[in-house]
Amino acid sequence: MRDIPEQWQLQGSAAELYERYLVPAVTRQWADDLVFRVGVREGDRLLDVACGTGVVARAAADRIGGAGRVAGLDLNAGMLEVARSFATVGSLHLEWYEGDALALPFDAGEFGIVVCQLGLQFFPDPLAGLREMRRVLRPGGTMGVSVFAELERNPVAHALSDALDRHIGPGASAAKRSEHALADADALRDLFEEAALSRLQIETVTKTSHYPSLAAYVDFQLQATPLAAILEPFDQLGRDRLAILVVDDLAATVGAFARDREFAFPQTAHVATAIAA
Fold first, then answer.
1. Out of 163-172, 202-211, 222-231, which region has the weakest mean confidence (pLDDT)?
2. How far is CA 192 from CA 46, 145, 182, in A?
3. Residue range 247-257: mean pLDDT, rounded
4. Confidence of residue 11 (pLDDT cuts 50, 70, 90)
5. pLDDT tens digits, 219-241
6. Is residue 207 part of a domain?
7. What percent of the chain has pLDDT above 70?
8. Measured between alpha carbons, how far is 215 from 212 in angstroms, rounded to an integer?
9. Mean of all residue pLDDT scores within the chain
10. How far apart (Å, rounded) are the C-alpha atoms in residues 138 and 275?
11. 3-state class of 273 per DSSP?
């Protein structure tokens, strides 16, 4: 049997691990892209919905400066605990709120920009979420939303999903597959139009995610994302063995992305921007 991957016993909560490993590997580059696309400028008032540990809010605050406002909202208390450790960016105090994206605790027209990065697909009612984000936007304000594209356009996520179903059982990959639940660009366009947003632009964008190794990718996915829940029935030995099986499976299917002591692979998302009429 192959040696147990060294990175398996990562230290910290899932939210801490997410911030430490997945933000630099994946979400920071998407945050910078989204902030650029919505045209964040000095003095803007921005709301980051489903903010997680706050990477988009922090990226925006770098541009907005002390004269503006940046707020982040999420349902997950653990993610917000990490977000709150980032109290300020420069001279700007960041605001963090625990709340429901379908019932935003803000007044109509309170923000000039509202963004939601890689979160809309998890809303129980995405249209209601878009309408709420539209409500808190001032007339002429900008909305920016990103969602992962089809699983078939994301080969490593596809391979991981299939591996989990093979080695744990049908449905084990549900949390991973749900990341791609709003992957159809036409369906996304329909939602924006129903939410009374205009000047809609949707671009399909591919970026490269970087991990130290294929084994590190598996470890981070199984500990710092909702996939961690599927490991709860296993003892430590069972978790270690599962990690080895999944790493071997991915090495056979997407191992070509592992080279030069790095696991670097493409991820594709739809990025939508629109204006509140």
1. 222-231
2. 19, 10, 12
3. 97
4. low
5. 999 999 999 999 999 999 999 99
6. yes
7. 96
8. 8
9. 94
10. 10
11. strand
Q: Is residue 31 part of a domain?
A: yes
What does the alpha-carbon distance between residue 177 and residue 184 come to, in Å, rounded to a whole number? Answer: 14
Name the token pair of 211.
């991990």
Number of domains in the chain: 1
Domain of residue 225 covers: 6-276
Q: Given a cut of 50, is residue 8 above it in pLDDT?
A: no
Q: Which residues contact 85 (CB under 8 A, 6 or more apart)?
A: none
Q: Is residue 88 part of a domain?
A: yes
Distance CA(224)–CA(26), nearest Å, equals 12
Torsion (CA) 243, 224, 124, 112 in degrees, nearest 10: -150
Residue 37 makes CB contacts below 8 A (sequence gap 6+) with: 144, 271, 273
User: What single letter denotes the amino acid at residue 27?
Assistant: T
CATH number where 119 lies: 3.40.50.150
Do 269 and 148 form a contact (C-beta atoms < 8 A)?
Answer: yes
Q: How does pLDDT run across 80-92, given as a tens digit for each residue? A: 999 999 999 999 9
Distance CA 57, CA 51 (A): 7
In a domain, 1, yes or no: no
Transcribe 191-251 into DSSP letters.
HHHHTTEEEEEEEEEEEEEEES-HHHHHHHHHHHSGGGGGGTTS-HHHHHHHHHHHHHHHH
Amino acid at 41: R
